[in-house]
Amino acid sequence: LQTCRWHEFANRTQLEQAARRFILEIAERAIATHGAFRIALAGGNTPRYVYQSLRTAETDWSAWHIYFGDERCLPAKSPDRNSRMAQTMWLDYVNIPRQQIHPIPGELGPETAAASYAQLIADIDEFDLVLLGLGEDGHTASLFPGAAWEKGTALPTVIPIHDSPKPPLQRVSLSPARLSHATCVMYLVSGENKREAVIKWRAGIDIPASRITPAGGVDIFSSIC
Ligand code: 6PG
């Protein structure tokens, strides 16, 4: 079962500032304890300005290792790629060694991208931090309600998706179990259109976002209620 800590903010700016602080605190702790910080990023609009605000952070960028929780199967340079968004909003401005940035190769198509990413992350034990968003329909990463993954019993760690209800159709997503394999999991939730999904989530109704169940619980930063 998922343990939730809700952090509510009056507006998106406050949410963004608190999220920036939270990310940097976890980074410092991880770097102090094991010399590296492994973070998996989310796509969508809510993290966009959090990423931008990280450009000016004072941290040891050489210890950061960047991964992604999901990706859209589009050309590598497409502005709609989650990796491209993170790159242009943030990563292009900081000194993280190139070889420590690991986009999901969505341009190769769902099957090949998923297989290759599963192999890449097989070497990492747990993420220090997984960032996630929430969709109107309760989805998180590219785990949509009613899709095949919900019924799958032996899911791969990285799931190829061919029928996403949110464009594009083809995507790749880490599985709930793999996203749960993290010291911290943080959701960034903003926008009136998420209200209904948040109400369900808080009421304990099963939505994809409630399937991520790390041992340490999840922190939900929301500027809706
Ligand atoms: C994506 C995301 C997705 C996103 C939510 C919320 O590829 O679109 O990974 O899971 O986080 O849809 O997005 P917003 O923050 O834009 O509402």
Beta percentage is: 15-25%
Determine the fraction of residues in helical runs and give it as a percent range.
25-40%
Give the averaged pLDDT, no decimals: 97
SSE order = EHEHEEHHEEEHEHE
Largest sheet: 6 strands, parallel
Low-confidence stretches: none
Ligand set: 6-phosphogluconic acid
**Which architecture does the CATH hierarchy give at level 2?**
3-Layer(aba) Sandwich
Number of strands: 9
Taking all Cα atoms into account, the compactness measure Rg is: 16 Å
How are the strands ordered across the major sheet?
A: 1-9-8-5-2-3
What attributes does this structure have?
225 residues; 6 helices; alpha/beta; 28% helix; 21% strand; binds 6-phosphogluconic acid; three-stranded antiparallel sheet; Rossmann fold
Question: What would your notes on this structure say?
Answer:
InterPro entries: 6-phosphogluconolactonase_DevB, 6PGL, Glc/Gal-6P_isomerase, NagB/RpiA_transferase-like. It holds the Pfam family Glucosamine_iso. GO terms for molecular function: 6-phosphogluconolactonase activity. Belongs to the glucosamine/galactosamine-6-phosphate isomerase family. 6-phosphogluconolactonase subfamily. It comes from Sideroxydans lithotrophicus (strain ES-1). With about 220 residues, the chain is α/β, with parallel strands linked by helices. It has one domain (about 5-225): Rossmann fold, CATH 3.40.50.1360. Helices cover about 30% and strands about 20% of the residues. The protein contains six helices and nine strands. It has helices at about 10-35, 50-55, 80-90, 110-120, 175-180, 195-200, and strands at about 5-10, 35-40, 65-70, 70, 125-135, 160, 170-175, 180-190, 220-225. A six-stranded parallel sheet has the order 1-9-8-5-2-3. The longest helix has 23 residues, at about 10-35. The protein starts with a strand and ends with a strand. 6-phosphogluconic acid binds next to β4.
